[in-house]
């Protein structure tokens, strides 16, 4: 039978790593499973200046600190693999199945599945992400101080982001998709 954990966290973004810290503090046996790089989307952020206690860091740098904090608790384990299924067992526990690391049993599953930006496929979009192309106005508005910018999108979110950016950019143009 699979090894049993108090908690399995699927996803190693900021939320999953934070959950691992709290599980460790509570002395719970926790396993965090991440298929990609620990930290998630924040790893794409070149400069972080809006996280309390962090005057300046990169997304990767901040997430390395989150990871080190999670690993500071002996009951925590981190594994890199893909979760392929979650099944509830007759005893009320859950079986978390993975691609390369086998199956794990747990009393609790926490999902930190993250997000992905809506990529439009515009030439240069991928190459310039974090270098002029941004997906978060509150995160990146400072980069556009005094510049003319374009917000691509539709609906309330695009208008709210554009409105926020007017406090930084010299001109904001909204292009509705």
Describe the protein's architecture and organization.
The chain is an alpha/beta fold and 177 residues long. The chain has two domains: 3-111, FAD/NAD(P)-binding domain; 119-177, FAD/NAD(P)-binding domain (3-Layer(bba) Sandwich). Helices cover 23% and strands 27% of the residues. It contains four helices and ten strands, in the order ββαβαβββββαβαβ. The protein has a four-stranded mixed beta sheet with strand order 1-7-6-5, with no helix packed on it. A four-stranded parallel beta sheet has the order 4-3-2-8, covered by helices on one side. The protein is elongated.
In short:
23% of the residues lie in helices and 27% in strands. It is an alpha/beta fold and 177 residues long.
- Structural category: alpha/beta
Radius of gyration: 20 Å
Number of helices: 4
What is the average per-residue confidence, as pLDDT, rounded to a whole number? 92
Indicate the CATH architecture of the largest domain.
3-Layer(bba) Sandwich
Q: Kindly give the count of domains.
A: 2
Major sheet characteristics:
4 strands, mixed
CATH superfamily of the largest domain: FAD/NAD(P)-binding domain
The share of residues in extended strands comes to 25-35%
What general form does the structure show?
elongated
Low-confidence stretches: none
Distance between the termini: 52 Å
CATH topology of the largest domain: FAD/NAD(P)-binding domain
Counting DSSP E segments of at least 2 residues, the number of strands comes to 10
What strand line-up does the widest sheet have?
Answer: 1-7-6-5
